[in-house]
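Q: What residues go here?
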């Protein structure tokens, strides 16, 4: 029990066993034995050192078994680091544990998502229909922008968090622990990039939760394509796209759509192509124009970043009063993570 918590704390700090060993002035063998559960009752002084080295309060190590946690899905660059994968997963698992603890005290919104079970490959058409259904479950009109996708997901019972650790090669992560057993899905936004990119990440992860939780394993490339199609369809519905993206389709047209719908110019161009509103050649030409203006990295038209609020309420309810470090201590969280998540 303590062993898996030591591993979680270490991975949350992006440390290897030997890095933790040297930070805590212990041997690597000791860390490895502890994590494997072969030393199940470590001395208090040992845990103190590990707590100091990882900035976790000692109380964290005594909270009992951790919840089961699925592998989950990452949205990251191909070269994304596996240390960051582990860090994101460790922090997410800890958040799921805290949320589970809160369910007996708080009335969290019921889960309003129903994953697709169909085993067949999904057509673009089926994804469009699913996105429309999701929009109406969110109470959004068929041509309207989604003003705050993080809040919409929270109202549908999903935990959305913005993880504090800056990782340029990652955008997001999602997992649905204990699916079918009252487990609550989680979406973590990692990068802290532009508002439009974060919104797309939340929509993309929603796509994974709906499309890849209950269906048989999908080829990872197909899964990415499906999640991207879903994200585009959720943020700019087909009806809205057909109204707003009319010939002659220039960057100016796409910029107007971005300003209204909070989705990047590049993603809107892709959306237009997916819907057959532009040809492959036109799509290629628009993307070349974006590159020539260096907009692939830094687009014009700023979209406000979103802040999830549900997790802050949960933490506030569980942590009581006092300073940040007292509150973090009560929850068993690194003060740094606590303040990043608790800020509403
Ligand atoms: Zn993905």
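A:
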């Amino acid at each position: 029990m303590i062993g898996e918590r030591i591993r979680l704390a270490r991975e949350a700090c992006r440390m290897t066993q030997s890095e933790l060993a040297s930070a805590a002035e212990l041997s690597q063998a000791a860390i490895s034995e502890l994590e494997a559960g072969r030393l199940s009752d470590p001395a208090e002084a040992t845990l103190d050192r590990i707590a100091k080295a990882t900035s976790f309060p000692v109380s964290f190590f005594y909270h009992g078994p951790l919840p089961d946690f699925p592998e989950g899905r990452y949205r990251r660059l191909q070269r994304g680091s596996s240390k960051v994968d582990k860090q994101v997963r460790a922090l997410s698992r800890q958040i799921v544990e805290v949320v589970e603890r809160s369910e007996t005290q708080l009335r969290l919104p019921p889960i309003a998502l129903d994953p697709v079970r169909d085993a067949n490959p999904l057509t673009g058409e089926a994804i469009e229909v699913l996105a429309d259904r999701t929009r109406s479950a969110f109470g959004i009109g068929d041509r309207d922008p989604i003003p705050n996708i993080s809040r919409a997901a929270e109202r549908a019972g999903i935990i959305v968090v913005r993880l504090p650790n800056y990782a340029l090669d990652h955008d997001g992560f999602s997992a649905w622990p204990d699916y079918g057993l009252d487990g609550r899905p989680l979406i973590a936004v990692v990068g802290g990039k532009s508002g439009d990119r974060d919104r797309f990440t939340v929509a993309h992860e929603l796509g994974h939760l709906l499309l890849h939780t209950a269906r048989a394993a999908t080829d990872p490339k197909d899964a990415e394509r499906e999640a991207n199609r879903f994200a585009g369809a959720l943020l700019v519905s087909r009806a809205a796209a057909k109204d707003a993206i009319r010939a002659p389709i220039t960057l100016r047209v796409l910029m107007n759509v971005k300003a209204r719908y909070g989705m990047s110019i590049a993603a809107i161009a892709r959306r237009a192509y997916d819907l057959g509103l532009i040809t492959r050649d036109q799509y290629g030409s628009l993307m070349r124009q974006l590159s020539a203006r260096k907009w692939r990295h830094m687009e014009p038209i700023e979209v406000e970043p979103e802040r999830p609020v549900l997790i802050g309420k949960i933490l506030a309810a569980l942590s009581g009063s006092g300073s940040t470090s007292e509150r973090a201590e009560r929850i068993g969280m690194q003060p740094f993570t606590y303040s990043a998540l608790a800020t509403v």
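A: Context that may help when evaluating the design: The two ends are 32 Å apart (CA to CA). Residues 73, 75, 204, 208, 224, 227 surround zinc ion (CB under 6 Å).
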